[in-house]
Amino acid sequence: MRKIVFLCLILLGLTSCSSTKAWTFTSSDKQVEIKVVASRPVMFDPYEVSVQVKGYENEKTFITELNNMGLTDEEVTISWTDDQHCTLTFIESDNKEQKFLITVERAGILVNAE
Questions:
Q1: Which of 62, 76, 81, 112 has the most CB atoms less than 10 A away?
Q2: Bridge partners of 59?
Q3: How many other C-beta atoms lie within 10 A of the C-beta of residue 49?
Q4: Predicted local confidence at residue 4, as pLDDT
C-alpha cells in the first residue's frame, strides 16, 4: 500500500509541474523588440507560445503551440535580414521547424508562417 501511495505522489508531482520560459530579441537599431514566452501547465503537454512583436509604435501578439520537452536557446532562434525583417524559428522534439517571417514597418506588423 505504501508503494502505491508513493508512486501516486510521484506521478502527481510530474503531471503538475508547470514550466515557463522566455526570450527577448531586439533589432540592431533597437526599434524592434520580440518577446517569446512559452508555457505549459503540465509537464507532458505542448508549450503554448506567445510571441509579442513591438516596433515603430505598433504591436502585435500571436500564439502557436510547440511540441518540445525541454525548449532550449538552440531551439528558439531568430535570424535578422535587416532591422525590419526577421525569421523566428522553433524546433520541435521531432526536429520539425516552425518558422515565422516577421516584418515590422511604420505602417504595421506582418507575420507569416512559413
A1: 76
A2: 54
A3: 22
A4: 59
